[in-house]
Amino acid sequence: MTLKPLVMPKNVEIDKEVTNDTFGRFILSPLERGFGVTLANSLRRMLLSSIQGAAITRARIGDILQEFSSIPGIYEDVSQIILNLKNVRVKLLSDEPSNLYLKVKAKKEYLAENIEKNPNVIIANPEQKILTVTDTKVNLTIEMCVETGRGYVPAEMMKHAEVPVGTIFLDAMFSPVLSVNFDIKNTRVGTRTDYDHLILDVKTDGTITPVEAVVEASGLLKHHLSFYTALGVEPHFASKEQLDAEHRRIREILKRSIDELEISVRASNCLKDKNIKTIGELVKKSSKELLSYENFGRKSLKELEKNLAKVGLHLEMNVDKYLKEDI
């Protein structure tokens, strides 16, 4: 069975005035009523929970054995340093975990940009503060491990035995998408004004662009939904050309005389007595109204409905949408 097509947008519009490497605004319109919320909620969940990213998952700070410690000559305690490391946004270019090193020995404030360069890791926020040295006698190295993952993974789930003593695990926020918001407004298509106009705002940490994030999230949704479409044959939606042709066919039939219907002379004369001359005037009537006419009985009604069905018509039709071109 061929399905009537839904109202569909031609493409996604990107608001170039506000879109950059960390913020994107995507406009999808027009959509059938309710589709805006459906698409926006699904994309929002995927964007916030399922986009792959990277994070610092564990660290060793000199000879410190656990995070509830302080380090002589450093202003921040270990807990604060760990919190600062969690806020370093990284992009991993390899498929394997990679290590980063920060050598601390000078009296100054250390930022993420002071971490030794690694060709496999890009730091998206080099201005992120890590610690402040207040004593020139300080000399230690912070070793960090960068891994890929999805969503939020607490430190307890990251722990495993194959690590050196003194390793501190971090709560890992792998998701490179920081926030997703959407707004749905009404838009007009023809005479209807209740179609959806979806505006989707996506903010990332800079390790992935909003466009890349939306494409990946859409791909994940499409892949998962494909398991349901595989249950049977995908529905075939009629093209605009097919609908236009059907529209023209019905319009031509509606303009024809009722004499072209294969109904009895008695029924035809009865209809003409009620000033019903065209098929278009006829199909607007209800069966109850036709049966109220003198000399128009149930046999005539059954005969009429059968002949209307042959050409794809029925009683109580709204013919205005077919005949309005001639108004």
Automatic annotation (TrEMBL):
One of its GO terms (cellular component) is cytoplasm. It holds the Pfam family RNA_pol_A_bac. SUPFAM superfamilies: C-terminal domain of RNA polymerase alpha subunit, Insert subdomain of RNA polymerase alpha subunit, RBP11-like subunits of RNA polymerase. Signal peptide: none annotated. Residues 1-234 are annotated as: Alpha N-terminal domain (alpha-NTD). It is an enzyme of class 2 (transferase). Residues 250-327 are annotated as: Alpha C-terminal domain (alpha-CTD). It catalyses: RNA(n) + a ribonucleoside 5'-triphosphate = RNA(n+1) + diphosphate. Its EC number is 2.7.7.6. It comes from the Bacteria. One of its GO terms (biological process) is DNA-templated transcription. Residues 23-231 form the DNA-directed RNA polymerase RpoA/D/Rpb3-type domain. InterPro entries: DNA-dir_RNA_pol_insert, DNA-dir_RNA_pol_RpoA/D/Rpb3, DNA-dir_RpoA, RBP11-like, RNAP_asu_C, RNApol_insert_sf. Homodimer. The RNAP catalytic core consists of 2 alpha, 1 beta, 1 beta' and 1 omega subunit. When a sigma factor is associated with the core the holoenzyme is formed, which can initiate transcription. DNA-dependent RNA polymerase catalyzes the transcription of DNA into RNA using the four ribonucleoside triphosphates as substrates. NCBIfam families: PRK05182.1-2, PRK05182.2-5, rpoA. Belongs to the RNA polymerase alpha chain family. The N-terminal domain is essential for RNAP assembly and basal transcription, whereas the C-terminal domain is involved in interaction with transcriptional regulators and with upstream promoter elements. HAMAP family: RNApol_bact_RpoA. This is DNA-directed RNA polymerase subunit alpha. It comes from candidate division WOR_3 bacterium SM23_42. The lineage of its organism: Bacteria, Bacteria division WOR-3. The gene is rpoA.
